[in-house]
Amino acid sequence: MSPAMIFNIHLVLGYVPWLLCFAAYIWPRLRSMEPIEAQRAIATLHSFRFFGLVFLMPGVVGPDLAPAFASFAAYGDFATGLLAMLALFTVARPALFWPLVVAFNLAGVVDLVGDYYLGTVLDLPGHAGQLGATYAIPILYVPLLMITHVAAFYLLARSRRHQIAAT
Predict the structure, then answer these.
(1) What separation in angstroms does the CA of 12 have from each of 48, 59, 74?
(2) Backbone phi and psi for residue 65, each to the nearest 5 degrees, phi listed first
């Protein structure tokens, strides 16, 4: 099996255990929480995305990792992480918290979709060895991030529907 095939299998299968875990343990808990607390939990997870700057660290990634991919992934994660942290700092001020929740989720989805797009265009699977120590990020971490972005948007929409129904 080629390294590109293994990488693609890893990308797809990375979602399976997270979806199973999310459905069994995380989603029931998030749905039962108050909206602000559920979004706070999701923001806490995403606040660690500053770690994406590691894509720019020489010696951690290979010298032939596509710079366009590395920069986009690094700065997209960094921006998302900072927005998530800002949301957490403003949890006591809902007028600031909710727009920041939307902002970090939008930035995060754009980042992840952009990473998948650039990875495809730049043949990241064919150069997966250049990811070095960061190989685990798209395989293990990104699926959970994408799943929680989808959950966050669903919870935002559900919360909004409940607000409209209450008026």
Answers:
(1) 23, 27, 22
(2) -70, 130
Q: What is the distance in angstroms between the CA of the first residue and the CA of the last residue of the chain? A: 58
Q: Is the pLDDT of residue 162 over 80?
A: no
For residue 33, give the DSSP letter: S
| Average pLDDT of span 62-80 | 97
Helix extents (H) in the chain? 3-13, 15-21, 27-32, 35-46, 67-89, 94-121, 136, 142-166
Q: What is the mean pLDDT of residues 64-73?
A: 97
Cα separation, 93 vs 98, whole angstroms: 9
CA neighbor of 156 nearest in space, from 72, 30, 57:
30
Q: pTM for the complete prediction?
A: 0.93
Tokens found for residue 150: 């989808």
Q: Which of 69, 24, 13, 46 is nearest to 153 (CA)?
A: 46
Q: What are phi and psi of 60, to 5 degrees?
A: -90, -45
pLDDT in tens, 131-143: 999 999 999 999 9
Distance of CA 130 to the CA centre of its chain: 21
Query: For residues 6 and 128, what is the distance between their CA atoms, to the nearest angstrom?
Result: 9
Q: Angle at CA 142, nearest 5°, toward 161 and 57?
A: 135
- Can you read off the two tokens belonging to residue 148? 């929680």
